[in-house]
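During the reporting period, we have paired protein sequences with backbone structure tokens. One record among many follows, to show the layout:
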Amino acid sequence: MKVFGKRLFRPRSIWIRRIVQWFFFLLIALISINHTLVENGGGIPFLSTASLHALCPFGGVVTIYQYATTGTFVQKIHESAFVLMIIGFALAFLFGPVFCGWVCPLGTVQEWVGKLGRKFFKRRYNHFIPARLDNLLRYMRYLVLAWVLYVTAVSGQLIFASYDPYFALFNFWTSEVAIGSLLILGLTLVLSIFVERPWCKYACPYGAVLGLTNLFRVFKIKRSESTCKADGACYIMCPMNIPVDSLKTVRDHQCISCLECTSEAICPVAKTVVFTSGGVK
């Protein structure tokens, strides 16, 4: 990236994250397709035949109340979702919301679409919404989380499936998908051309849950004030618009642990923005 003809930094990337993202996207896509094939009398022998509900850790979150009170799961939720929820929380307590930044296929697709936006709009990309409004909108996902937990506890049914773009993304070819979830998926993809990860920032209830672990996770993103050039590289490239260059420790509830702000990727100075359980100078 150049400003006034001078290169500020050389953008790199955490290459292993790209591999992990591709792996989980292809895995979930193949399992979803295989589930449909099995229902129609076919199937791929070596692949799981599970439905997407059995593979979503947020399903474990929405069934907590019913499981605690009756010992049963919400309709369509499987024990595997409960296990995945526990694994997701364990990882988040250690490393932060790595599920959001490394695993979630919907987040990955938003990033892919966002590359078009970044190509078209350059530095304007991901900075269209005024900061004050953007900061307010980011708390909407906690309202969505509260609503989902409440209606699921009251009804005992997986109401959110009718609005979930993640479910729509991997089931749009089936009759199981509600029009509402398809519309939300379409809107999410369109907005991704202008705003990076709009669903993650403003509406994802599971992201809201995992985001809270940024307050007390073991491994944190920290910035060395003594070596930081404060050139804004980390802030400009952060998908969640977190002002890393003004923080000593990133505890923002929006951080997705993508590590793209670290000295291994964007930061031009070695050992300045690091992912560590200890301290920095």
Observations:
- The chain is about 50% helix and 5% strand.
